[in-house]
């Protein structure tokens, strides 16, 4: 997997197979579990258990619910080769212990290599930038039945 470049294109790290809709009013743990399952299906994740552990540990320290309906759980590990993104849509929302105390409707999970901090920060910033656009979340949620359209909405296409 190529490293991200300036103006980071997130499309190489996404796949329709890693877009999921979590129905009902799930608990945060359920959403994280489902997201971990689709993320660790990617061959770049060398140690699935270590990735899951890192995600849950990070959430115990502080929530990755950044506000405005968004959660961005992420982990860097030596057993991850490259970058992998997964998207979860929770139409009814989930209590994610977000900074603004509001429900989370879109979760973008990132698995990243531990050896490339500079590009890790670029990818994380690109994710946050896409999710801060006021049209992105509504477009992603409206496309919930079509994974390719969800990705296109996330990428601003």
Overview of this protein structure:
- A hairpin with a 2-residue loop joins strand 2 and strand 3.
- The chain contains five helices and six strands; from the N terminus they run βααβββββααα.
- By secondary structure, it is α/β, with parallel strands linked by helices.
- The longest helix is centred in the last third of the chain and has 16 residues, at 117-132.
- Mean pLDDT is 93; it is low at 1-6.
- Strands 1, 2, 3, 4, 5 and 6 form a six-stranded mixed β-sheet that branches.
- Helix 4 packs antiparallel against helix 5.
- It is globular, with a radius of gyration of 14 Å.
- It has a single domain, classed as Mannitol-specific EII, Chain A, CATH 3.40.930.10.
β-strand amount: 15-25%
Termini separation:
22 Å
Number of helices: 5
CATH superfamily: Mannitol-specific EII, Chain A
Q: Order of helices and strands, N to C?
A: EHHEEEEEHHH
* Top CATH class: Alpha Beta
Give me the Rg, rounded.
14 Å
The helical percent reads 25-40%
Tally of domains:
1
The chain-level structural class is alpha/beta
Averaged pLDDT, please?
93
What is the 3D shape? globular
Could you name the CATH topology?
Mannitol-specific EII, Chain A
Question: What is the total tally of β strands?
Answer: 6
Largest sheet: 6 strands, mixed
What's the CATH architecture?
3-Layer(aba) Sandwich
Which regions have little confidence, pLDDT < 50, spanning 5+ residues?
1-6
């Amino acid at each position: 997997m190529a490293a991200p470049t300036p103006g980071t294109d997130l499309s190489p790290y996404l796949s329709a197979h890693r877009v999921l809709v979590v129905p009902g009013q799930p608990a945060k743990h359920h959403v994280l579990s489902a997201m971990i399952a689709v993320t660790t299906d990617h061959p770049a994740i060398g140690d699935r258990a270590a990735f899951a552990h890192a995600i849950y540990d990070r959430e115990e320290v502080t929530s990755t619910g950044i506000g405005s309906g968004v959660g961005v759980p992420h982990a860097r590990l030596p057993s991850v080769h490259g970058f992998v993104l997964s998207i979860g849509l929770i139409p009814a929302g989930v209590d994610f212990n977000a900074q603004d105390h509001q429900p989370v409707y879109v979760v973008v999970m990132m698995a990243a290599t531990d050896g490339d901090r500079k590009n890790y920060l670029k990818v994380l910033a690109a994710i946050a930038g896409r999710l801060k656009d006021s049209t992105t979340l509504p477009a992603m949620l409206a496309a919930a039945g079509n994974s390719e359209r969800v990705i296109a909405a996330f990428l601003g296409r």
